[in-house]
Amino acid sequence: MARAATLEASSMAAVVGGEQEIVLDHLTNLGLFAANYNGKGQIVAAGSSAKIQELIDSPPPGTRVVGLAVAGAFHTSFMETAKVELGSLASSIRTENPKLLLWSNSDGARVDSGDKFLELLINQVSNPVRWDLTMDSMVSYGVSAVIELLPGGTLTGIAKRAMPGVATLALKSPEDLEKAVAFVREQV
């Protein structure tokens, strides 16, 4: 992904607020992609650096746009070369089916096949993250607690709003692992 990010100047920006359809139309009109659907009221846009700057300068109605300090337009076609390279590397990996529940953040569905998980992981490089659908699935399944891995915080904040009653913990440093162990013990 790092190599793919150097091929063309690209970036990302969080679009906070506004009506989703209006935001998506605005992105399309600018030639940008919705790279992350983080939850109600937050979509991350990605595309050329110039188009991201246009979005920042002229946001959709009722929104606030925040440029992100990232190296490229991840989860879009800008990462297609990385997807191809990852697919090639992954061809030698032997998978096993997961022993714990996994959810795909490409469509929010549960994944019970190791081969399917690997395929989704490869495709995720150049396709949008659907954290919104993942949270919906976890709530439907009855998940009672969520731990966000390093560097944590952003998704935990979104989950607190979208998943009322679900306990959350964001790991911000390796030292927080002890907090995670205690958190898990409290949940069982």
Can you walk through the features of this model?
It contains eight helices and eight strands; from the N terminus they run αβαββαβαββααβαβα. It has helices spanning 2-5, 20-30, 49-57, 80-90, 114-124, 131-141, 154-162, 177-187, and strands at 10-17, 33-39, 42-48, 63-68, 102-103, 110-111, 145-148, 167-170. The protein has a four-stranded antiparallel beta sheet with strand order 2-3-1-4. It starts with a helix and ends with a helix. The model has no long low-confidence stretch (mean pLDDT 94). Its EC number is 2.3.1.39. Residues 1-175 form the Malonyl-CoA:ACP transacylase (MAT) domain. It is an enzyme of class 2 (transferase).
Integer average pLDDT: 94
Q: What structural class do you assign from the helix and strand content?
A: alpha+beta
Estimate the strand proportion.
15-25%
Q: Helicity, in percent? A: 40-55%
Biggest sheet layout: 4 strands, antiparallel
Strand order of the largest sheet: 2-3-1-4
Distance between the termini: 38 Å
Number of strands: 8
Which series of helices and strands comes N to C? HEHEEHEHEEHHEHEH
Provide the gyration radius in Å. Answer: 18 Å
